[in-house]
Design a protein that fits this description.
Number of strands: 22
Strand order of the largest sheet: 2-1-3-7-8-12
Shape: globular
Strand content: 25-35%
CATH class of the largest domain: Alpha Beta
Order of helices and strands: EHEHEEEEHEEEEHEHEEEEEEEEEEE
Distance between the termini: 41 Å
Number of domains: 2
CATH topology of the largest domain: Rossmann fold
Largest sheet: 6 strands, mixed
């Protein structure tokens, strides 16, 4: 059976405060999820919703995505679960935006929809769906990632959606799961300027770094336990405040698999090359993680206007690379050196240097 994904990023909340990072974060995770050498989920199997941006005239009456649109993404899966049907092997759920928790449940989290305000806290009760999918073994593995605040509001209980409540499947105990929160219950999730006016969620920055550098198994599988360990250890390097922490609930006895790399093969036919420690840094190179004593490439975050999606990015250095632009925010691995980047067919360009620069923005 196939893998599936749901990716949601909401910046614009006309009834609340506007955020700057969720759309960038959702684009970054979507790019990873649908990359054949990374998440490897077919794009046609990923449902994606974004906000319509902080445009003039935006009000709570016309802001999207609404709660109804959010719930509609989960309806086919919930209907399959209610009927006791298997839907797929893995399910990835990624959410970024304003959120809150239920004062009665320290394990809770919900994502506010774009039309929410203080008197109309419309939201997606995502964990109610997740619990249904786990109980009914709708998927073999479920990975949930929520980059949103979890501060409870006494006047905002989380409303359970109208979904079936069948008798749990005997296969439920076999379901593998991983739930990552951008913060602990009662605290806020933060975003930061990563350079050039590009904002990103702190949790998602740590997550994407873990997906690029956490140690895979010898057979190439990147397990949830390794992602959790990496984020737990390195989150402080991304955090805005010293006490910021991510919370991850993972059943390590039945570990999820985020991705599978081709196994690193040494000249002797297998294992780790002689002279390289098994704990050496792991660097992503051309879609394959290889063990290296000293990393040479660096991952550069590229942001372009939405209008340039489906064009090509030309990077000139030692030769010319033509990279298809599949999202407004994506990543490129480059060797150290000086480069010029421009969207094909456009005169505007930007000069940058690796490893000095971490991110570039065009347009």
């Amino acid at each position: 059976m196939a893998d599936y994904g749901i990716v949601i990023g909401i910046d614009a909340y006309p009834g609340l405060t506007t955020l700057k990072g969720p759309r960038n974060d959702a684009n970054a995770f979507y790019a990873w999820l649908t990359d054949k050498n990374k998440g490897n989920v077919p794009p046609e199997n990923v449902s994606r919703l974004e906000c319509n941006g902080p445009v003039p005239g935006l009000t709570v009456r016309n802001a999207v995505p609404t709660r109804q649109l959010l719930d509609d993404l989960f309806r086919p899966l919930a209907e399959a679960a209610g009927a006791g049907e298997k839907y797929g092997e893995r399910l990835f759920i990624y959410l970024a935006g304003h959120g809150f928790a239920d004062n009665r449940d320290p394990d809770s989290a919900a994502l506010l929809s774009a039309e929410a305000n203080q008197n109309w806290p419309a939201h997606l009760a995502v964990l109610a769906y997740v619990n249904l999918f786990r109980r009914m073994a709708t998927f073999d593995e479920i990975i949930v990632l929520i980059d949103a605040c979890r501060v409870p509001d006494l006047s905002w209980p989380i409303a359970v959606p109208t979904i079936a409540d069948p008798v749990s499947s005997p296969e439920a105990k076999k379901v593998k799961y991983f739930v990552g929160f951008g913060t602990y219950f009662g605290d806020v999730s933060r975003e930061k300027n990563t350079g050039g006016g590009v904002y990103r969620g702190v949790f998602t920055l740590a997550l994407m770094d873990a997906l690029a550098h956490a140690q895979p198994e010898p057979d190439g599988r990147l397990l949830g336990s390794k992602v959790k360990t990496y984020i737990d250890h390195y989150f402080k390097d991304f955090a805005v405040k010293p006490n910021d922490e991510a919370e991850i609930d993972a059943n390590t006895a039945r570990d999820v698999v985020f991705m599978t790399y081709p196994p690193a093969v040494a000249e002797d036919g297998g294992g780790v090359a002689e002279g390289i420690s098994e704990s050496a840094p792991v660097l992503e190179m051309k879609g394959v993680q290889q063990l290296l004593a000293t990393p040479t490439q660096k991952t550069i975050c590229v942001t372009v206007p939405d209008a340039d999606v489906d064009k090509r990015l030309l990077i000139t250095g030692a030769g010319v690379k033509a990279i298809p632009i599949t999202a407004a925010l994506f990543f490129v691995d480059l060797e150290p050196g000086a480069y010029k980047a421009q969207v094909e067919g456009q005169a505007a360009s930007i000069l940058f240097e690796v490893p000095v620069d971490d991110a570039i923005t065009l347009g």
